[in-house]
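Consider this today:
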Amino acid sequence: MPRGDSEQVRYCARLSYLWLKFSLIVYSTVFWLIGALVLSVGIYAEVERQKYKTLESAFLAPAIILILLGVIMFIVSFIGVLASLRDNLCLLQAFMYILGICLIIELIGGVVALIFRNQTIDLLNDNIRRGIENYYDDLDFKNIMDFVQKEFKCCGGEDYRDWSKNQYHDCNAPGPLACGVPYTCCVRNTTEVINTMCGYRTIDKERLSVQDVIYVRGCTNAVLIWFMDNYTIMAGLLLGILLPQLLRPKTLEPDLTVPGMHPASAFALPLPWRLCAQMSARPALGFIWSDVACLVRGPRPPLIKRLSPS
């Protein structure tokens, strides 16, 4: 068999390239759609927040955080989708480095949060107290706090006494809300008539005397306990985000690496790096449909001039 036909057969048999490319397309497309969804929700929440002229603090405005996160996810994932579809080496390299930077930031943030666990919890509690001070002025924070208190069966940040920071719930304030907590802090009983004032005059009482009426544990600890109880789900989500960046498929062949690279080095490359390496070592045929057609029709003379061997 002529050398050209032999090389064409070998090229058509390299399924690992298609596997890497399809994997990267699916991975990028999923996060691209998630980024678009997060961005849409953030924009909608910000429009609603502006209607009520709520706070402008970035921390106390989750809509701003959602918008920033959605923009980053949308742009980065779009670069990945475009790079993988067009076999654009420059875009793929940019996507590769951006993913690397994001991965480093995530790891550093996680390690710092674990090392300074107590300080992180104190920081969260302080920010929740600041949000409680403006509970009735910030629609975003109010909706989130109500949801967390209801679903996680908790009250306040550190405990239910955090609600004394609010001017309406302070024990020295006038009105029916004084020294009480919102209805979402109340222990709900489906057999009884709903009493929206069930948290009346509870802040100044001891935990044991009100634990049957309201939730006394703080939401920070409640959320942390939920994460620890559902560590398998969280580990699965974390792997779903990080694994495609570090995946090492067994189908990768030594001859698909960059010329001059040791075969073992290819297995140490994350997904975008390996695809980038393979693209630099093979003719760029354009869209993926050319590769699919090559596998379907079988070997045939190459459409473009083959790279000269080094």
Summary: The chain has two domains: 18-117+233-268+276-297, 130-226. The domain at 130-226 is CATH 1.10.1450 (Cd81 Antigen, Extracellular Domain; Chain: A). The two ends are 22 Å apart (CA to CA).
